[in-house]
């Protein structure tokens, strides 16, 4: 069957095969010496010629599907992630809670892929997500890599796709010996206060700076876990010591939290439509916009970096600083200072540091 130029073709392969019909396309490839040549590659294989032709048609329309699967039944990346999670948790070999939290963070980093059907995701789509985070550490990119490969392996196993596209990705990161963060300067912090409620969402930047929370941690704070009268909120991810910790709210930031607080909303931080942010949508659609209007160049994690710098400059008690930020901190008996909920605040949660002490220290900022 004659196809239009550049459309691709359906060919029958020689020999005895279970799927003898193949979909083949041509593409331009540049060699190492700069010579551009036309090459061909096979996209998929089918039992019937009709299925191969349908695939080629849908490929050119941007909606290819595997044989015997309706396009409407093909899951999005987010839906496939949930299917993979359910499958993974059904296995005897269980992953730790910290591993699942790392996967959730990595999943949030891949937010642009969430609504896209798995068969429509291109290598460039995934690479763009990775490139937007290549200023981060090896562990961050490593978690994104692990999640992508796991989800795509599951997709191939269930025949949603024929090929694992993650093999073509480049996973770049910033070496830990190189600083990937820069604190907000005193002048920049002053500018933020000047532009508070003049430029939308500047308050969120200040909340990051004065709570020391990780970017995703703040976005995941539930309204029910914000205690304005007691001046603390519950939140935290990533490490055992940081997960679900109590975070004191200094006098500077408390009014900002109070202004954001809406008991009718599930989350403390919402977009202008009242919907929950993923990290990717927040950074791309909110943080970057604010930084652009202010003429600043910072990442969301720089707020946490700034908190640590301000705490050090203010002479904050080091144990309090570690407890607030959710870092592991041991006493002389090698016991970790706890920062988890579910215990009496003044006796159990902080071991040797009461909430009053933490509030006193955080108000030094």
Q: What is the CATH first-level class name of the largest domain?
A: Mainly Alpha
The arrangement of helices and strands along the chain is EEEHHHHHHHHEEEHHHHHH
State the assembly state of the protein chains.
single chain
Largest sheet: 3 strands, antiparallel
Question: What's the CATH H-level superfamily name of the largest domain?
Answer: Intergrase catalytic core
Taking all residues together, what is the mean pLDDT?
A: 81
Portion in helices: 40-55%
Give the low-pLDDT segments: 238-243, 328-352
Tell me the number of strands: 6
Q: Rounded to an integer, what's the Rg over CA atoms?
A: 25 Å
Beta fraction: 5-15%
* First-last Cα distance: 73 Å
In the CATH scheme, what's the topology name of the largest domain?
hpI Integrase, Chain A
Summarize the structure.
41% of the residues lie in helices and 10% in strands. With 365 residues, the chain is mainly α.
Structure, described:
- The strands form 2 sheets. Strands 1-2-3 form a 3-stranded antiparallel beta sheet. Strands 4-5-6 form a 3-stranded antiparallel beta sheet.
- It has 14 helices and 6 strands.
- The longest helix has 20 residues, at 138-157.
- The protein has 3 domains: 9-70, no CATH class; 74-168, Orthogonal Bundle (DNA polymerase, domain 1), CATH 1.10.150; 186-362, Orthogonal Bundle (hpI Integrase, Chain A), CATH 1.10.443.
- It has 365 residues and is mostly helical.
- Helix 2 (77-90) crosses helix 5, helix 3 (97-109) crosses helix 5 and helix 7 crosses helix 11 (302-313).
- The N and C termini lie far apart (73 Å).
- Mean pLDDT is 81; it is low at 238-243 and 328-352.
- 41% of the residues lie in helices and 10% in strands.
